[in-house]
Specification:
Strand order of the largest sheet: 1-2
Low-confidence stretches: none
Oligomer: single chain
Number of helices: 3
Mean pLDDT: 82
Strand content: 15-25%
Number of strands: 4
Helix content: 10-25%
Structural class: alpha+beta
Length: about 150
């Protein structure tokens, strides 16, 4: 569960805000394979918000209307932009492959956007999924394959 707590600047209170389609995923810095999720995708008041495995459906896509009196570091990183250059391209596929062969390491932010198929881990299937996206197959980055 997500709870309100006094600010302590720990990773448990930090989120990556990742653009995803018509909104944003809020990825927990302390658990980059998990994201903020509205339980049961219910619009009712007092519905529980918790951290859940990334699956990319509506319960995990949020809008940001206005923010005041809090610190937000908006990276603007898009799902799949593993080299953080602002463009999703074949070089991002190469970054995933290099990460998997331990040629490079990823930051937490890179790990959050590298799980392109939304299955909660970064592996070769994420590189393949990103290639499918670039080849214009009907896939949605960050959405778990069915």
């Amino acid at each position: 569960n997500i709870q309100v707590y006094d600010r302590n600047d720990s990773n448990a209170q930090k989120w990556y805000i990742i653009e995803n389609g018509n909104g944003y995923n809020l990825i927990a810095k302390c658990a980059p394979s998990k994201t903020m999720d509205l339980k049961g995708n219910s619009p009712d008041d007092q519905t529980n918000i918790h951290i859940w495995e990334c699956h990319g459906r509506d319960a995990q896509i949020f809008s940001i209307d206005s923010i005041s009196d809090i610190s937000i570091y908006l990276y603007g990183t898009k799902m799949g932009d593993t080299n953080l250059d602002g463009i999703i391209s074949i070089s991002d596929v190469t970054s995933i492959q290099r990460y998997l062969t331990k040629s490079i390491t990823f930051t937490d932010e890179q790990l959050a956007v590298a799980d392109t198929n939304g299955d909660g881990k970064v592996d070769i299937s994420d590189a393949t999924y990103l290639q499918m996206y670039l080849a214009k197959y009907n896939v949605v980055l960050g959405e778990k394959t069915r």
